[in-house]
Structure formats: structure tokens, C-alpha cells
Design a protein that fits this description.
The complex is a heterodimer of chains A (110) and B (114).
Chain A lengths: L3 E4 L2 E5 L4 E7 L6 E6 L6 E6 L5 E4 L2 E5 L5 E6 L8 E8 L5 E3 L3 E6 L1
Parallel strand pairs in A: 2-11
Antiparallel strand pairs in A: 1-3, 3-8, 4-5, 4-9, 6-7, 7-8, 9-10, 9-11
Chain B lengths: L4 E3 L2 E4 L5 E6 L6 E7 L6 E7 L2 E5 L6 E5 L5 E5 L8 E8 L9 E2 L3 E5 L1
Parallel strand pairs in B: 2-11
Antiparallel strand pairs in B: 1-3, 3-8, 4-5, 4-9, 5-6, 7-8, 9-10, 9-11
The chains are: A mainly beta (110), B mainly beta (114).
Chain lengths: 110, 114
Amino acid sequence: GQQVMQIPQYQHVQEGEDFTTYCNSSTTLSNIQWYKQRPGGHPVFLIQLVKSGEVKKQKRLTFQFGEAKKNSSLHITATQTTDVGTYFCVMKTSYDKVIFGPGTSLSVIP
Amino acid sequence: EAGVTQSPTHLIKTRGQQATLRCSPISGHTSVYWYQQALGLGLQFLLWYDEGEERNRGNFPPRFSGRQFPNYSSELNVNALELEDSALYLCASTRTGRGFYEQYFGPGTRLTVT
């Protein structure tokens, strides 16, 4: 079946450093979503990407969808302690099953 | 606008018992998804209900079941509880089941099986 990988699994950064997480799918995607889950919280929607090569920005966050629509990335510029949490990429298969990537857990050292 | 609500917040059961978890979607949303998140792990897709029908299920045994009511609220039932069923159960709603839309999550029900 369809598989999704996210790297890295964990990332520890100094406050102010940049952070990037990568999401790779074994199959071509129609679209992809990104969610953030704070420790002890529930996932919160960040963005959805639909077009090949699409790049979207939200303040310090930059999201990219690969040209082949099989991978995506989330980049955070100048991390802050409020960025702490786990970032998940999410996709829906052609069989209408939702797959959450394993997530990248971000720690920010003040 | 009220968000997605789930009850109970916590649930403690003994192995072999049954658990019932409830979810109320955002008003106007017709689609409800259920996920299991074991401690320190990612979210595993359990069930998807839309317009009162079960549309799909993840790779879980049949003892995980549920339903969606005419008001679009949903119930997840777990029969013959096993220790490994201990997890956070999250539900999420979307405004429609067609396509792939932003999911709004509830706070979850923490199920502990002893």
C-alpha cells in the first residue's frame, strides 16, 4: 500500500535557527496537508498544497509541493519557542483512506 | 462557533470490557474521522463517516466499530478491550466528505485499559 516517510524524526534547534521537515510519498499525490500538534494538544491544520511545484508562505513558514507531487517540505525560518511541536504531513489515498506521516518532532532550545 | 467536542475526556476500562466514545462535529460539518494515537506515536486512521454512512476504515480489527447519527455526531465503540488499545482517540470533522478538506480536531478521549 501507499507509504509516507517524514524526515527527520526529531530535530533539536537553537532558537533563531532554521528548521526543515521533509515528507515523501511512495505514490503521486493529488494534494497534501500539513498539521501541527503541540505537546498535549490536538493536530491543527496549517495548509493544503494542490499544484505541482506550489510554494506557499505563512509568515515564517514556507511550504513546498514537489514537481512530481510525491514530496513536500515545511521550512521554518528563525524558529521560536512557540514553534515547538510535531509536524505531520497528511494525504488521502485514491481509496479514500487518510494517512498521517509519522511526524517530525521539533524542540527549540531558548 | 463551537469546535469539535469529544466525551468523555478520560476513560478507564478493564481488559475485555467495551468502551464507547462520542464526538460532536462542528455545526454544518457532515464528515467525521476517527484516529488512534498511541503514546508517542503518530495518528492511525480508524474510521470515516460521511452523511450517516461508513465510507472507509483503516487497518483495525472489527471490534473497532462506530456509527454516525442523523445530526452527524458520531460514536466509536471498541469491544473486547485489549491493553494495547490504550491510546488517545481523536475525532475530526470536515464540512463535506467530497474531496479532501481541512480537518478540525477535537481534544480527544484518553482511553486507558488495565
